[in-house]
Amino acid sequence: MTEHVVIVGGGTGGTVLANDLADRLEPELDAGDVRVTLVNDDPDHVYKPVWLYVPFGQREPDDGRRALDDLVDDAIDLRIDRVSDIDTEARRLRFRGNSPPVSYDHLVLATGSTLEPDRIPGLAEAGHDYYSESGATDLRDELLAFTDGDLVLSVIGTPHMCPAAPLEFVFMADDWLRERGLREDVDITYTYPIQRVHGNPHIAEWARPLMEERDIRTETFFNAEAIDPETETITSMEGTELEYDLLVTIPPHAGVDLIEEAGLGDDGWVDVDRHTLEAEAAENVYALGDTADTGVPNAGSVAHYQAGVVGQRLASKIRGRPATATYDGKTLCFIETGMDAASFVEFDYEKPPSPAPPSEKLHWSKLAYNESYWLTARGLL
Amino acid sequence: MTDIEPDDTVDARGAACPGPLMDLIGRIRSAESGDVIRLLSDTDQSLTDVPEWAEEAGNELLAVEEIDDHNAFYVEKA
Ligand SMILES: Cc1cc2nc3c(=O)[nH]c(=O)nc-3n(C[C@H](O)[C@H](O)[C@H](O)COP(=O)(O)OP(=O)(O)OC[C@H]3O[C@@H](n4cnc5c(N)ncnc54)[C@H](O)[C@@H]3O)c2cc1C
């Protein structure tokens, strides 16, 4: 009998896993003992880190798009549709479009994050972001024309994709405005929901003095409650009010609704064992990347490492062997600290991060990684 | 043991910091004024995070209860 592995989500985690399985299970796939289906709701694969550079006019959204058909091994069945319902009892998925329902033996959820600006009154109307393709291009139009006034970057809630990206944005904006001779006419304020400038205390300790040096004002314990587009003010639950001329936010994030509807976790994040990535609430279901609630950052590097672990565990199970591969929390991040300098952190469940001194070499490493990403997605790197 | 009846409970046991505080903030966001939210957390950091935030936001921390391997925080929304 053919065993069917279904992966939902063809972003970083799902694509790396599909190509990993094509390689790892080649004999079984050739023999027809295993079938792997990758489902994505968009024919393109989207590489989101490109969006950080779009507002500064340095990259185009198309630099972050490739057809999944070109990225995914031919041994994988690709289905372009949106999954609308997961039945973990019957082991069946339904689709929003015309696809007939699909049964699975092993299910992997890699559905990523969804932005939910509507949770904050005024946000959809007044806030700009670089966490979506259209957000990044709209912000580019605003930023390129922005010459003076208050630039506020507000992190609204966690978890959100790439916890480094809000710091990167204000560091890059500071440097970019200096280069253009506009920095003296722009005040930059960075707000964060807890008492430090970043969720991880080690990264917060490293970033805070850099922000002071660069004259980036900070407001901590700032949880945006409402935005008034008329008066151009943002108010926090803690009672602080800030005026802005250009408001950039990291909007509230959630996973996808179908996860909560299937009873797999709250807010669309799947409750998993943080080492095996197996869902707590159902058999033969895994989650990886942003959607897996492990407490590590929602980062592409995390999705990549987790895909390797799930790939090994699935192959072991399919071959009737005990699955021994586990995820140790490994996370890698390059952090841009300006337009031509970056830092780098590496950490896991046990070892805390220790940011490297910013250098031009690390900045080029980040850009080089962005270029070679397509090899990562193909499973070659 | 307290006899405070919470309107809602957030179980953030197992979450690393700042998860528990963010979970509490999320729940307070959607609560009504006067509601009491109970937060269960097993990270020690919450013992400082939660009182500091409650004070900053003007919400009242009614009690902190020690239970086996975790703490229960009772926060009333202002
Ligand atoms: C501005 C920005 C900068 C970033 N920079 C970095 C960085 O420098 N380094 C880093 O490591 N990470 C970075 N990230 C984070 C990184 O992009 C994400 O963490 C990563 O993409 C997560 O991978 P994933 O596979 O979990 O989800 P995604 O890559 O988001 O993929 C999820 C996929 O699932 C699909 N999907 C969702 N629901 C359904 C459904 N019901 N049916 C079918 N398909 C569905 C989606 O369309 C999408 O294709 C950044 C993110 C942003 C926004």
From TrEMBL, chain A:
Residues 4-130 form the FAD/NAD(P)-binding domain. Pfam families: Pyr_redox_2. It comes from the Archaea. Signal peptide: none annotated. Gene3D superfamilies: FAD/NAD(P)-binding domain. One of its GO terms (molecular function) is oxidoreductase activity. This is FAD-dependent pyridine nucleotide-disulfide oxidoreductase. It comes from Halorubrum hochstenium ATCC 700873.
